[in-house]
Amino acid sequence: MLYYSTNKKAKEASLKEAVVKGLASDKGLFMPSVIRQLPKAFFHNISEMSFQEISFIIAGAFFGEDVEADALKTLVYDALNFDAPVVPVTDRIYSLELFHGPTAAFKDVGARFMARLLGYFIGKERREQVNVLVATSGDTGSAVANGFLGVQGIHVYVLYPKGKVSTIQEKQFTTLGRNITALEINGTFDDCQALVKSAFMDADLNAAMNLTSANSINVARFLPQSFYYFYAYAQMLRQGKGDNLVFCVPSGNFGNLTAGLFAKRMGLPVKRFIAANNRNDVFLQYLQTGQYEPRPSVATIANAMDVGAPSNFARILDLYGDSHEAICAEISGASYSDQQIRQTISSVYQTSDYLLDPHGACGYQALEDGLQADETGVFLETAHPAKFKDTVESVIGKKVIIPDTLKAFMNGKKQSVELPANFEVFKTYLLDQ
Ligand SMILES: *Cc1c(COP(=O)(O)O)cnc(C)c1O
Q: Which of 47, 157, 221, 430 has a C-alpha 20 to 30 A away from that of 374?
């Protein structure tokens, strides 16, 4: 399948080119040229199917032309060797728990899939080393670093804002060594993202090394995120709750939400979506005014959503032909302050005995506030609450149980390279490697 750029000025790319390059040459984001409708028969059987079985079928719809079926099956089954259960929180609001992977956040899905797909292309052609640059506000770095750890032919540079990620998050990408390098940037997440973007646009760097991104701008990372919307639907159907479903997505760069919009285009019966934001709410502002005005991010306790210029906004616009009206017909928004997030974590813990993380709390609250009488809501619980231990413990006044997978990271020793938020310095550093 070919991939076009949202800016429409670059030549269409093959899947391999889109994955290896990350961003199109005209700075646009790659979009699949075809969004396949899934056959009716698939939806008849879906409630009987496992996460891996469903994912393999959706993966085939996107990647089946470019990857042999048995290789794709191995890749999917290997990447998604954990569950994504839907759990009731109230009688109308369900949590799609996406934190059962190795780094306890949803980004494991896309990162593990992308690492294997890129590894597949590199291995097939014996290409020279590919360097993955990834900017993180916390969870992307851990998922990508762990997803790519030890993959032959790939080196990963994780850029993260010094002092702005939680200790557990930081440990997850600074303790690995091997083909993973952590770059501690004196700046904000937006600075990290800008450095990565500038690197992709820099002629010298691109002449000297193969660079790609593992942020959700990469199609191999964000498209697999559509898998679990289908799986969530399957589970809701099994419980007789498949009608009038509303998915609510705690959003930062909007990769997760965009993957859901793709699922709907492929025929998934979703009524509508809600994008839940923290105080970084440029998308909500866009919905309300029709004006998209990116601005610097502000730090919140849901830090993986601290994004002031969501990179997938271009994909949403493209998907709806730039129509504000069409976008508003399928997506609404909400925004919550740290104080409100804390309040939600506390009240849901007390009344439903369910422990939310600060991101999932935005999702839950937006359903609580926005669900209509005939609707059932599923919010994406994007991370395990233990990843935000300090915040969550201060709210509920109790210790949070840390999953063993996360505990193991805490014993590792942090190794990072500190750099200023300055492109020339960053460039020189990369060229010296
Ligand atoms: C990355 C992340 C988000 C935001 O996802 P986007 O796809 O960037 O919108 C939300 N919650 C958590 C825990 C995350 O790690």
A: 47
